[in-house]
Each structure stands twice: as C-alpha cells, then as structure tokens.
Amino acid sequence: MKKGLVMEGGAMRGMFTCGVIDVLMENNIDFDSAVGVSAGATFGLNIKSKQIGRGIRYNKKYCNDKRYASFSSLIKTGDIYNVPFCYGTLPYELDKWDYDTFYKNPMDFYCVATELSTGNAVYHKCDNYDGTPDGIDIRWIRASASMPAVSKPVPIGDDLYLDGGMSDSIPLRFMEKQGCDKILVIETQPADYIKKPQKYMKIIRWILRKYPRMIDTMENRHNMYNAQKSYVKKQVANGKAFVIRPDAPLNIGATEKNPDELQRVYDIGRRIATENLEKIRAYLTA
C-alpha cells in the first residue's frame, strides 16, 4: 500500500498546513509520496526534512523583516517575497533547511509550477541533491510559490514558470497517478468555499500580455479550482481520499505581519489534525 500527501497552497493560509504536518510528524505518520503547491511546497518540504516547528518558527520571527516580504522589495526587485533572503539567507543561514535529511528521506516530494508559454502544470520531483540557494530543486519550489503580478517568472531551462496554484491547485489526480492507494489531502479553504473569477484580470492581462495561454489559465482558474474541490469531495465519499481542511475561513493576509495571526492559523491546523488523528491513522492503515 502506497500513501500519498497533497498540500494545497494559499500564501499564509499555509500556516494551517504547517500545523497539520507538525502533528503528523509528532505522531510518526509517514508517506511514500507528497506533492506541494505554492506555500504547500515551500512550507510542506519540512515534512520530508523532518523539521517539526520550522515553518511557524521562521515565519513568526521574520514576518516583519523587510528582507522577507515587503512592497519595497516588490518595487525594487519585482518580487514581493525577497528572493535572496527567502531562498538563500533564511534557509541556509538563519533557520537552516536540513537538506541532508530531505534528500536521504525516501519519500518522493514533488512541487507544481505553471509554465508561462503553455499555461500548463509541470510536476517536478525534488531529487537533485544540491545544498546551494540556486539549486534546481530550490528554483522549482520558488517557481511554485511565485504569485503572478507580485513575482517575477522563474527561469528554468528554456522556460519561465510561476505559481503552480494557477494550473493545479489541489493535485489529487496527480497523486493518484503516482499509484497511491491512500491519499491525505490538506486544503486551506473550508468545505463550502467557492472561488470567484480573478478580480484583477485587466492588470494581469497587461503584465502577461506575451503569454496568452497563461492568461487563459488564470481566467479559468476559478472553474478549475471549484471542480477540484468537488473532485476531492467525491473521492472522500468513495473512500479514496481523506481530507483535512479548516472548519471556517482562515481570514489571514497573504503577507501577514502579525505573528499572533500566524500562530492562530497554525493552531487551527494543529487542532483539526489532532481531532482527526485517529481517523487519519485508521484510514491510512485500513
């Protein structure tokens, strides 16, 4: 039996995911494969490196640091989350990502990015050992979390990539294709959430004017997302997936500066994971 984990993105709603995966790690619940999208990749990688508490710790510590995320960074660099700090200084100097453990862990870890030229999802397996800030896996994870309009596209090979949530927000189908028999899905929106069309398409059309297929992907994102939410519910009803999600909207900013708010959302993730712990165990071992 092969066990899979799917982690939705959602910027700082990802603190919910951090709370869930910390409870999973504390209770020795392991997976054979995991896939993270956007914040689900940047924070979710801690489950493969087995670093309990790291996600909430560094976000609380640096959320007010202008080197981490700021509009001044957006204006100066084109990235609201400062790339040299977030993907270099922080994980390699200040709160170290344990990449040795990450790569020794036999769990397969994938991240999802969106290719600008096609608007399609690309799934990258992070298995290229390289303990440097510009390693190929770090670039893919950065691409996965590079939000359109507030991030520069990430060049990898001959192509450019942005946020994986634009093309595959909840990659349950992808994880099914990896041959997983039991799949735990971590969503960051409540069950009744319905995504609406993107408000700022006029601006996005101008910014991405050279990439019409990416524009099409973003114009239709709400339809894709709502269909994926329905598919998750269907698979849960059929016993083919188990979902952990907030019981109410998390109401947290994408670049939240209040450490107490980050802790609040993290604690919600911990609470819901703890409440469902025995059900998760039973599902994964049945």
Automatic annotation (TrEMBL):
Active-site residues, Swiss-Prot/TrEMBL: S38 (nucleophile), D163 (proton acceptor)
Keyword set, alphabetical order: Hydrolase, Lipid degradation, Lipid metabolism
UniProt xrefs under InterPro entries: Acyl_Trfase/lysoPLipase, DUF6363, NTE, PNPLA_dom, YjjU-like
Domain of life (superkingdom): Bacteria
Keyword set includes Lipid metabolism: yes
Location of the PNPLA domain: 5-176
Molecular function (Gene Ontology), one example: hydrolase activity
Database matches in CDD domains: Pat_hypo_Ecoli_yjju_like
One GO BP: lipid catabolic process
DGA/G (motif): residue ranges: 163-165
Protein's UniProt name: Predicted phospholipase, patatin/cPLA2 family
